[in-house]
Specification:
Layout (H helix, E strand, L loop, with lengths): L3 H52 L4 H61 L6 H54 L1
Helix pairs in contact: 1-2, 2-3
């Protein structure tokens, strides 16, 4: 059986984990706010420059050239912004995942300790029931590990797809810009 000290230690560890995850969440929000402030300042500055350039246009051909010259950097900046947001979100998600995985491993160890302790104190003849129970717990652990591996693989595939889409968008913008010139 679990003692009061073990329960208190477990609760303390859970609170520490919760506060650690909360701190990580706030760090992610801070990074997003900082990124948005930087992007907003840059966009405001660029908008002022673009407006001045538009006011100095003398004919339609010059206007088309100006539009083409503005389009590619805009696509690249949008792609870079999306990439930064994705990196912040995936970094925070990785921290949460790592913490939850550690917690699950610790909980499993504690649970198996309780099961082993109960098995030692079980009445004679219950060895088969204890073995079946341990086997079920092991199967559950293996299933959890399989799910964690599948989630990691899906995350890796999603990250690769995101990078490919971002690269394609920037390259498409470059092609469009060259075609307009």
């Amino acid at each position: 059986m679990l003692t009061a000290e073990q329960i208190l230690a477990s609760q303390k560890a859970n609170f520490e984990t919760l506060f650690g995850l909360t701190s990580k969440a706030f760090e992610g929000v801070e990074k997003l706010v900082e990124l948005n402030m930087t992007a907003s300042k840059a966009a405001l500055s660029e908008a002022a420059g673009s407006a001045q350039a538009l006011l100095s246009v003398k004919d339609a051909q010059e206007l088309l050239a100006l539009q083409a010259s503005l389009f590619q950097p805009l696509a690249e900046k949008a792609s870079a912004y999306s990439r930064h947001v994705y990196e912040i979100a995936s970094g925070a998600g990785a921290e949460f995942g790592k913490s939850l995985e550690t917690q699950a491993t610790e909980a499993q160890k504690k649970f198996m300790s309780v099961v082993d302790n109960a098995a030692k104190n079980a009445p004679a003849g219950s060895e088969t029931a204890v073995a079946v129970f341990k086997s079920a717990v092991a199967a559950g652990s293996n299933a959890l590990e399989s799910v964690q591996k599948a989630v990691k693989q899906a995350t890796d595939v999603a990250e690769a797809n995101f990078s490919a889409v971002a690269s394609t968008a920037v390259n498409g913008a470059k092609t469009t810009t060259r075609a307009k010139r």
